[in-house]
UniProtKB/TrEMBL annotation:
It comes from Patagioenas fasciata monilis. GO terms for cellular component: cytoplasm; nucleus. PROSITE patterns: HOMEO_PROSPERO (PS51818). It comes from the Eukaryota. This is Prospero homeobox protein 2. InterPro entries: Homeo_prospero_dom, Homeo_prospero_dom_sf, Homeodomain-like_sf, Prospero_homeodomain.
Amino acid sequence: MAGSSLDPCILLPFSQAAALPQDYECDASPGEGTQALAFPRTHAPASVTCAGDRDQLSDQCLQDQVSDQHLQAKRARVESIIQGMSLPLTTPAFGTSLEATSGHERQRGSEMPWESKRKLKVPQQGTGAAGQVALTGGSPHAEGCQQLKEQLCFLEQQLRRLQEKFSQIQEALTPGHLKKAKLMFFFTRYPSSALLKTYFLDVQFSRCVTSQLIKWFSNFREFYYIQVEKSARQALLEGVADTSALRVSRDSELFRALNTHYNKGNDFEVPGQFLEVASLTLREFFSAIRAGKDADPSWKKPIYKIISKLDSDIPEVFKATGCSQELLRS
């Protein structure tokens, strides 16, 4: 009886029997079973510590990558603003090495798991190997991050200089110049840059100022043609058949819409030649729409060509500084 094998489930309580090693079998010898009970298999605590250090190292790397991505995104926004201002972007000498370093960091960031990007742990500095790595400097990653910050600072300075230039342009063209340009539209619809320089003598011209003035007249023409086309379609709906009956007078609805836009307050007397040009434009739109030419996307171009040849001379009084007040008094 003493030499036979004993069932550990009989000798031990149920809770202890359930904790027996997995390699214990019913056909094992009594000595082997005793050794299995006396020396259970456990993992070394050192491996747990190493795993914790690896987690902290991984978290530190992820934080560095997120910081780099933030700086790169900020740099990209500044570059896009500068490029949108149509001015050349000059970068310092360290740009080449910086691009290589930032490209390497972007590649590493793309390989990072999505779950790790979404939630990061805050590492405890000064604990274990992770704290020692965080305190040590001079790594290629740290150098690339420093270069990225320097280039970002350079781009921000260049952006401030560009903003100052644009603010000077805005100061050069005042609301008085805009009102003067609107009154000039009664005489010319397609002014050249040379003509604009002749009549805006108090403005220091640059490429941006010239572009702004040309843009003003482009907006004036757009509003003009929209209003004339609207009147032409309204005449067709009313059953007008004879184009000679289409005339723009000072009492017409079309003239009131145009005069309110270009001559707000009705302070300036619109020249009669502008009424003739508006009447001709109305008849051209009416004829083209009645003939079905508006089905062609470029049906307005022949009308633009005709109207561009009807510009008249601008009075000399427009060349004087502060001519808006003189025109209103006359």
